[in-house]
Amino acid sequence: MIDSHCHLEMKDxxxxxxxxxxxxxxxxxxxxxxxxSLAENERLEKTIQIVNEHGNIFTTLGVHPKSNYKSLSDIKxxxxxxxxxxxxxxVAIGEIGLDYFEEVEKTGKNTIDKKKQEELFRFQIExxxxxKLPIAVHIRDAxxxxxxxxxxxxxxxxxxxxxxIHCFSGKNIEEADKFLDLGYFISIxxxxxxxxxxxxxxxxKVLPDEKILIETDSPFLAPQKYRGKRNExxxxxxxxxxIANEKNIELEKFKELTVQNTVNLFxxxxxxxxxxxxxxxIRDSIYVNLTNNCTNQCIFCPKYQNGAINFNVKGYNxxxxxxxxxxxxxxxIFHYYNFKEVVFCGLGEPTLRLNVLKKVAAHLKNxxxxxxxxxxxxxxxxxxxxxxxxxxxxxxxxxISLNAADSDYYNAICRPQIKKNSVSGINPFNSILEFIDxxxxxxxxxxxxxxxxxxxxxxxxxxxxxxxxVKFKFRKYNDVG
Length: 481
Prior knowledge:
Elements: E1 2-6, H1 17-26, E2 31-34, H2 44-53, E3 57-61, H3 72-85, E4 90-99, H4 104-107, H5 114-130, E5 135-140, H6 143-154, E6 163-165, H7 173-181, E7 185-188, H8 198-206, E8 212-214, H9 236-247, H10 251-266, E9 279-282, E10 285-288, E11 312-313, E12 316-317, H11 326-333, E13 341-344, H12 354-366, E14 370-375, H13 379-383, H14 387-391, E15 397-401, H15 407-414, H16 418-421, H17 428-442, E16 445-451, H18 458-468, E17 471-475
Parallel strand pairs: 1-2, 2-3, 3-4, 4-5, 5-6, 6-7, 7-8, 10-13, 13-14, 14-15, 15-16, 16-17
Antiparallel strand pairs: 9-10, 11-12
Helix pairs in contact: 8-9, 11-12
C-alpha cells in the first residue's frame, strides 16, 4: 500500500519517528507521500531530511490555504530552489486549495480572506502547470468555489497534468463526479471509518475504483479504532479495509489497485512491479500505452496542443519513463479488474512496438480477453509487409484512424513522418486504404475513425467507410478517451 498524503515532518512524530517507519514496513505500507510546506515555520527542512534519508518517501511542495507566507514571489523562489534539489522526489504541488471553515463562535468574528486564498490557489495551480506537475487539492467548506476555479483552468489553454482531491469530504457522489469529470482522482482518509459518516461510505461504494487513492493525512484524522489519538501511515490499512468492504472487493486486489492509481497519478518510480503510464482504465476498458513514438504528428493530437507537449489523457499522465517490456505491460494490465477489453492505444503508435504488442495480445487472447487495437493504419508501409495479416492472429477488433477523405488533407493534418523514412513514392493515405482492405480479411471487427475538425468533410470519410463495408467512428475534436 501507499499512504498518498501524510505529514511525517510534524512534531507529533519526533519522539518515535523510527517506530512509525517500522510500523509501515510491518503492515505493508511500502511508500508514502509526505507533504512539504513552503509556508513560514512549517518544518520544510525536516521534510527534506526525511525524503533524503528514506528512499520510499516522496514529497510535494506548496502552501496550505490557511498557512502564512511572505509573498507569492517568495513561494516561487522557495519552490524553484527545492524542486531543483529534490526533483526526483517532488511528485506534485500541494497541498493547495481553499479552506473557508471558520469557528466563528471561538474567534467571535470571521477572519477568512477568501480573495487572498483564491489568489494563492490560482498562483500555485499555474506553478504546477508551468512545471508539469499534478496538484494535491485541499478543500473545506468550499467545494463549489474550488470546482469553479479548477474547471476554468480545465477549459482554458493551460495544459493539465492531473491532480487529486485530498481527504474528500463532499456531501454526495454528485459532488465527487464533478471533479472526476475534470480528470481528478479522489483520495479517501480516515473519516470514512467514523460511525456517523455513512454518506462517505456510500460515496466510496460507487466511486470508480481506478480513481481512488487512500491516505491517512496523519498525524490528523486517525481511523475509528484509534480516534482521538495520533494517526500514522500504517493506519492507511483501515481505510483500504473499509472501502474494500463497502465495494465487496477482495482486499488484496483493492490495495493493489490503489497502488497503481497512486503510481499513475504521481508518476512514481521505484515501486516494485508497478509502472507509471503503461496501463490506465477508462470506463470498462484498459488502455495500454506501449510507446510515445508516432508515425505521424497530427495537429489534433493532445501531445501537440497550445505550443507545448502534453501527455495527459483524462487525468492520466501518459509520458513513459521508458518503453515497457512485455512483463511490465502485463503486470500493469492485471493490477486492474472488472474490465471488458484491453485496447492498445495510448499516446503513441502501438504497432511501432509490434513484437511486444503481439506477445501481450497473445497472452490476453489465451485468457479469453477481447483485444482491440487503435492504429494509424500505416504499419504495412512502415514494415514493408502485410502486418494486417499478422495481427489477425492476435486482434479481435481494430480501429483505423483515417481522418481525411483525400491524400492532400491527410498530409496537412496528420503530417506523416513516414514520408521522410520510407522508399520514395509512398503515399500514406493510400497505404491506409490498403491496410483497411487487408484488415477486413483477417480481423473480425474493423472500423475507421475521423476526428471532427471544422474543415473536414465527414460525409466523404463516412462514404469511404461505407464503400469498404466497415464501421465508422466519429471522434469529437479535443475529447480524448
